Amino acid sequence: MNVLVIGGAGYIGSHVVYELNDAGHDVTILDNFSTGLRENVDARATLVEGDMQDLTLLNRLLESSKNKPSDATSTAEEADPFDSVFHFAALKAAGESMEHPDIYTRANLVATMELLNTMLRHNIKNFIFSSSAATYGNPQYLPIDEAHPQIPINYYGFTKLVIEQTLKWYSQLKGLRFAVLRYFNAAGYDVKGRITGKEQNPANLLPIVMEVAAGMREQLQVFGNDYPTRDGTCIRDYIHVNDLATAHVRSMEYLVAENRDLTLNLATGEGYTVLEVIHEAERVSGRPVTHSIVGRRAGDPAELVATSGRAFDQIGWKAEQSELSKLVESMWQVYG
Ligand code: WQD
Asked: Is the pTM for the entire model greater than 0.90?
């Protein structure tokens, strides 16, 4: 199939592009390289450098999958229109969204709404959306399933929820087919070693731990060790980015084959504490991960783990690369 991946040079997007190409699909990447890395771009893909908020570019791109912006001569009938669109180009820092809601409104809400309208204008009906555990907010029960109430506690999670709700309306009113994929904590690097560009200025635990082990950062601050968990530090459900990529490809194939919408948690159902992550990184790297215990971070629930039983039932997917050892080993291949 002919596929557009917006944000295909980013951390998750680049892994999905490799998986799509491995599965024989024809992939075009749209990326503005604000955070994406050129070294992570799969050479098999067609690369269009630009911003999804540039509606002139977006319209021209969606009119024809073979047109690059400079090639305005191709006519629509020559073009092979996109079958599906993946969207990885949102802002994702929960804390930042609380300080700068305006940039999250523009980047995550307005840009995605315009994308959906443009897709429908060009009769492109399959949309795979990176949603998030952040739409759930504080857990009312664990493990979290897809029926869990969605009461986001940060603006980032709210933007993801608004898009999810818009997709339901567009499905009902305009026949858009969507896959909402709610990630828990994405981590790891391509087990085949094809993606090695490191995320710049990471805010998430795993890359920060790796930077400390590699001597790129002096120490890790552990945000609280007084939580009601087995060692007092927070528990999260870490999912390998290769597992995420597999789920995305299968979800797209499901939309096309079944012509039905999907809403899935992508998680393992297991959780690891912050200290367990630190100790595994020290074991794998053979290096100390210097850390200090500081106060809790606002908005951090003690534990977040989820079920993915629906993903197994509907697309035959379950996490296979997400054991902590595999997550850390695949990252140390890049940082070490
Ligand atoms: C994990 C644990 C921290 C950094 C976020 C987003 C969520 C999703 C995944 C996109 C927590 C602790 C972290 C540090 C620490 N993103 N920690 N010191 O907050 O679970 O989820 O990323 O969809 O929407 O909210 O991930 O990696 O920031 O934190 O102690 O320097 O590590 O307290 O318990 P989080 P995280």
From this structure: yes
